[in-house]
Write a structure and sequence with these properties.
- The chain is globular.
- Strands 1, 2, 3, 4, 5, 6, 7, 8, 9, 10 and 11 form an 11-stranded mixed sheet that branches.
- It has 2 domains: 146 residues, 3-Layer(aba) Sandwich (D-Maltodextrin-Binding Protein, domain 2), CATH 3.40.190.10; 128 residues, Periplasmic binding protein-like II (D-Maltodextrin-Binding Protein, domain 2), CATH 3.40.190.
- The chain has 8 helices and 11 strands.
- With 296 residues, the chain is of the alpha/beta class.
Length: 296
């Protein structure tokens, strides 16, 4: 009798767990607290017709790991394009499971930052210098390593989060640091006009087949006194379609529709980066997720 009761109880538990999964909110994995991904994700949430939970992470690499493993029931995440390509080298079957949710591309500028008045004004000046490149869970780390390998610039890698790098630079513990994020990055903007830092030009023909050339105009940040040339990494909203339930598919369909409808509003009142959205990019080579009817 006790065994029968246990079996019945277990059956009810499974049913309840299934119901909870069906009614669970859609989790949208963004990025660092105060970063561009978080701001964009909050704009999407505000325009959504369904409940969405915006979660923070350590960056694009962390996002990839959580998405591919479906940690915390994650099926949709912001991600840098170069992080996706780097992981495909390790997993050639990746295209079967991951899809680009939206045909919208937001370029994240590569910020190379040195101390104000520093002689570091371009990439070649980094030779022999201590440069913070982010940590292994951040897309910044992948981008910095790609730049180093492609340009053959022999700086000294310092693994340090972008959040900690500013204080280390001011103290003289490092000479420069990379930060990949859609400008204006709020955490850099909020440093104010007296922040003792400057942006460094990044120019190299060896980067042109991966990244898009961009300018960060004078005054984008309160402390920025001149326009600089750099590159940008395309940002994608990526979904994992492996073992996707019908309920999750419905939620993603709604997310896709709501975000497309909300785009004009985002460009007027949302994060400034929405103004850089464009719907066509011939350089992006990855399969898309398309909304389709869910058959019960």
């Amino acid at each position: 009798m006790f065994k029968v009761f246990r079996i019945i109880a277990l059956g009810f538990a499974i049913i309840i767990m299934g119901a909870n999964t069906m009614n669970a909110q859609l989790n949208l994995l963004s990025g660092l607290n105060g970063g561009t991904y978080e701001a964009l994700a909050k704009d999407i949430k505000a325009a959504s017709s369904q409940e969405i939970t915006v979660l923070n992470s350590n960056g694009s690499v962390d996002n990839y790991n959580q998405l591919i493993n479906q940690d915390n029931n994650i099926f949709v995440s912001f991600m840098q394009y170069d992080v996706l390509l780097a992981n495909e080298l390790q997993n050639p079957e990746l295209r079967k499971d991951l899809r680009v949710l939206l045909p919208l591309f937001l370029d994240e500028e590569i910020h190379l930052i040195s101390k104000k008045g520093s002689k570091i004004t371009n990439l070649k000046d980094l030779r022999g210098k201590k440069v913070a490149i982010g940590v292994r869970g951040q897309g910044t780390y992948v981008t910095a390593q790609t730049i180093k390998q492609r340009t053959q610039t022999a700086w000294i890698d310092i693994e340090m989060s972008s959040i900690d790098a500013y204080a280390a630079l001011v103290k003289g513990e490092i000479d420069a640091y990379f930060y990949v994020g859609g400008s204006p990055v709020s955490s850099l903007f909020d440093l104010g006009k007296d922040a003792p830092i400057q942006l460094v030009n990044i120019k190299s023909s060896s980067l042109e087949d991966i990244y898009t050339e961009k300018k960060i105009k004078k005054g984008t940040y309160p402390w920025q006194t001149s326009t600089i040339t750099t590159f940008a990494v395309p940002t994608l909203l990526v979904v994992n379609v492996k073992d996707m339930s019908k309920d999750t598919q419905r939620k993603l369909n709604a997310l896709l529709v709501d975000t497309e409808k909300g785009l004009k509003g985002f460009q007027k009142t949302g994060h400034p980066k929405w103004r850089d959205v464009y719907t066509k990019n011939q350089a992006i080579d990855w399969p898309y997720y398309y909304s389709r009817p869910v058959v019960d």
